[in-house]
Design brief:
Length: 136
């Protein structure tokens, strides 16, 4: 399986602007710029897209890990905070809140760590990944 996305950039790094589109068309010429990346401009940015990919992948992987352990989650909410320092994406911090009937806190932590280590996006990223996981 392959998935694609396309980015088009016009102009200089600081004054230019770009658009990103995804194969599924969920992103369709979505704006990004210096301001949306380094300030508070309108549009997306690469770090936000990495965070979205990591949060989505992690949540799905945790659901699979919980299922393999005999538990079905009612809900999993994951926030990924990706940090850019001196031109390098250095970390992704996952904050997870899940409702999983019948699971002990210890078993949940074990499953949460397994998902952190084994979700495909975690494996693809060359950065520090930290995790705070809790049951609701």
């Amino acid at each position: 399986m392959k998935r694609t996305a396309t980015a088009v950039w016009n102009g200089s790094g600081k004054e230019g602007s770009g658009q990103v589109s995804s194969q599924s068309s969920v992103l369709n010429k979505t704006q990004y710029s210096y301001k949306s990346r380094f300030e508070e401009g309108v549009g997306t940015n690469p770090e936000e897209l990495i965070a979205a990919a990591h949060a989505g992948c992690y949540s799905m992987k945790l659901s699979f890990v919980l299922g393999a352990a005999g538990f079905q989650p009612d809900s999993i909410e994951t926030v990924s905070a990706v940090e850019l320092k001196e031109g390098v994406v250095t970390s992704s911090h996952l904050t997870v809140k899940a409702k999983v009937p019948g699971i002990s806190p210890e078993k949940f932590q074990e499953c949460a760590e397994d998902a952190k280590e084994n979700c495909p996006i975690s494996k693809a990223l060359n950065l520090a990944i930290t995790l705070d996981a809790s049951l609701t």
